[in-house]
Specification:
578 residues
């Protein structure tokens, strides 16, 4: 699984290899210090006539090695930090690019809170593991192998202790991994739920305050945080056994070496310096094993994070344009649905749209009405291919939408969604989402067409006014008009207004519709509306009922032939007269 994340190392290979090289040098130097310490004791101290020159010689070498080990360790820490942060940045970019390629169906599969957690917490977990791998793993593996060789060279009989301790430690780590992994998966799921609660609360903070539900939301958050704490505690309750058990085995091995080594010294089969060096080596070996066990525990913790990130990277985009013609452009704004069936669940027995067929000529203005849940929004989302049909076909400009590259198709279709979304930044920056190269005159023309210019100029900074996160500084109606202006700047061949003037008064609504006819002459317009007045000037009106197209004609004829349209018309227009 970790192989899938290796491309994130790209650009930081030198730092990663450099860190590993520096830590190898440090490990080798640390191994050499006990070797010379043994020589110092055996040749300079444990002799009938202590040799000061020998002591100074080996002592100086040990000091020099310690100094170079310190420098190598510092360089390793520096290189590993650069490599780790670069790895995390690349991994986040990989994930974000993948999410940007998702269709609406792919996004629906993962909650936004879960994606945020994967981009933050999960990436940090893997970054920490990556840093440990290029530092602790390499270092301690080298020390363990080299120290074992030196220990065997000092006394092969005492080295038998490793045949017991190392397999025992390995068995303990394997048991902990198997038992802990499911708990860490559950912990991350609880973290997703907690983040979802926070995200939902912050987005709807005005509603929370308006209904005085702050205390209730606090209680809900505390419940989510408590569930996360319990899941984390359950996971940690298993892995905390790793350190004490490893230390118990470590000290038991030290006691065994002292006992048997002491007997060998008494029997004249071993020197004191050899025992001192052997103890240093066994300390290094078992310490390295314990450090590797920490890396192992970190791997257990991050295994769930690796799996969650791999799910994003392995997710096959529901909508692909690999087979599309890169040269094909949308010729005009004509739209045709040919026996279209659609289901969000891709289940033919649970259709959202059923056998929808119609043809719209380029430049027509089409009204779309229907009751709540009649699939009005679903229908128009198929035009820019935000979803793919289950069967049938959708054509724009005389060609199936699957024949176009997504950029080419969506650049020719402007859509103002039901939820009016603005981004942090100025009004000007938000409008330029429609056209980055737009001049100030073009910005103002689009804003005037959307009846937004006057209220923009009422701000002290005009088009330079900062909107704040999500456009918190403007009202709902103002948001709608800014979103419409942004769409107009695309100069699209098809424009879709999904109930996008619902927060505007009737006079502003009428002004916007008049401006659309003049500014977008020749552009096909789909206007979804709840107000019958918003579609009365349309060339034709679609009437949807429970996912079926039950009528499609001029407003005048629908008054005569369609009960649903006539009922809506009479209820609204007569209500206005009364």
């Amino acid at each position: 699984m970790f192989k899938k994340l290796l491309p994130a190392v790209r650009g930081y290979e030198k730092q990663s290899l450099g860190a590993s090289l520096m830590i190898i040098i440090e490990g080798v130097l640390e191994i050499m210090i006990p070797f010379y310490m043994t020589k110092l004791i055996n040749e300079g101290i444990d002799v009938p006539d202590p040799q000061l020159a020998v002591i100074l010689k080996y002592g100086g070498l040990m000091l020099l090695m310690a100094l170079f080990a310190l420098i190598s360790g510092a360089l390793c820490a520096r290189l590993a930090a650069v490599a780790g942060t670069g790895f995390a940045a690349n991994l986040r970019n990989m994930l974000f690019r993948k999410v940007q390629d998702f269709s609406f169906a792919n996004v629906d599969k993962f909650s936004s809170a879960s994606i945020v957690t994967r981009l933050t917490t999960d990436v940090v977990n893997i970054q920490n593991l990556f840093t440990m791998l290029i530092r602790m793993t390499v270092r301690n593996f080298i020390i363990m192998i080299t120290a074992f060789c030196f220990a065997v060279a000092v006394n092969a009989r005492l080295s038998i202790v490793f045949a017991v301790t190392i397999p025992l430690l390995a068995a303990i780590m394997l048991t902990i991994m198997i038992k802990a992994h499911p708990f860490f998966e559950k912990m991350l799921q609880k973290m997703d739920l907690m983040n979802a609660r926070v995200q939902e609360n912050l987005i709807a903070i005005r509603v929370v305050k308006a209904f005085v539900k702050g205390d209730d939301e606090t209680v809900s958050f505390e419940e989510s945080a408590t569930a996360l704490r319990k899941a984390q505690t359950a996971a940690e309750r298993i892995v905390i056994w790793n350190n004490p058990i490893s230390q118990l085995i470590f000290y038991a091995a030290m006691v065994a070496v002292c006992y048997f080594g002491g007997k060998l010294i008494v029997g004249g089969q071993m020197k004191i310096g050899d025992l001192s060096g052997f103890l240093a080596y066994i300390g290094q070996i078992l310490s390295s094993v314990m450090m590797l066990s920490m890396v192992f525990i970190s791997f257990i913790i991050t295994r769930a994070s690796q799996k969650r990130i791999a799910e994003i990277l392995d997710e096959k985009t529901d909508i692909s344009d690999d087979d599309a013609d890169p040269q094909l452009q949308v010729a005009d704004g004509s739209v045709e649905f040919d026996h279209v069936n659609f289901s969000y669940s891709k289940n033919p027995d649970n259709l959202t749209l059923t056998d929808v067929s119609f043809k719209v000529n380029s430049g027509e203005t089409i009204g779309v009405i229907g009751g709540t849940g009649s699939a009005k929004t679903t229908l128009v989302q198929l035009i820019p291919r935000l979803y793919d049909v289950l069967s049938g076909s959708v054509k724009v400009g005389g060609r199936d939408v699957k024949d176009y590259k997504l950029d080419a198709l969506r650049s020719s279709v402007a859509m103002v969604l039901q939820t009016n979304l603005l981004f942090s930044g100025t009004i000007e920056e938000n409008l330029r989402w429609g056209n980055e190269e737009a001049t100030q005159e073009e910005l103002e023309a689009a804003a005037k067409a959307a009846s937004a210019h006057d209220f923009i100029m009422s701000f002290p900074d005009g088009y330079k006014t900062d909107l704040g996160q999500g456009g918190v500084n403007v009202s709902g109606g103002q948001k709608q008009r800014l979103c419409i202006a942004r769409a107009l700047l695309k100069s699209p061949k098809v424009v879709i207004l999904d109930d996008s003037t619902s927060a505007c008064d009737t006079a502003t609504d009428a002004a916007i519709r008049r401006a659309l006819k003049s500014e977008l002459a020749g552009t096909t317009a789909f206007i979804i509306a709840q107000r019958i007045a918003s579609v009365m000037d349309a060339d034709r009106v679609m009437v949807l009922d429970d996912g079926r197209l039950v009528a499609f004609d001029t407003p005048q004829r629908l008054l005569e032939t369609n009960d649903i349209y006539r009922e809506v018309y009479e209820s609204q227009m007569k209500g206005g007269e009364e």
